[in-house]
Amino acid sequence: MSRKSWTVFWLVALLLLFVFNGSLLITDSVESNYALTAKEMVVSGDWLSPQIYGQYWFDKPVFFYWLTALGFKIFGFTEFAARFFPSCFGLAGLGLLIWGQKNFLMIKLLFTVV
Fold first, then answer.
1. Rounded CA gap, 109 and 103, in Å?
2. Which helix (H) or strand (E) holds 89?
3. What pLDDT, in 10s, does the model give residues 83-114?
């Protein structure tokens, strides 16, 4: 792919992952549970024991809640903040996929030669 094509690809990825990130309300019950748990972390100040509605909630590893809570601390309690770090990981996943595809072809070529 040309440099211009890669630039367009990454700009579209950024547009889809970040610009429209806050335009959809959190309506999914699972996403709302995770966002509410992180919000309660920020409000209560208890960053070690995730809680939802006053009950301990260990549905996900605490690192996910920390990232979402950090998004809330940076951007406020918004949909964009709740989805910011998952979008960052989505962008990193795209980069890793492209990197792996390029390196896979090189490894395949090396195994073919050997």
1. 10
2. helix 79-113
3. 999 999 999 999 988 888 777 777 777 777 76
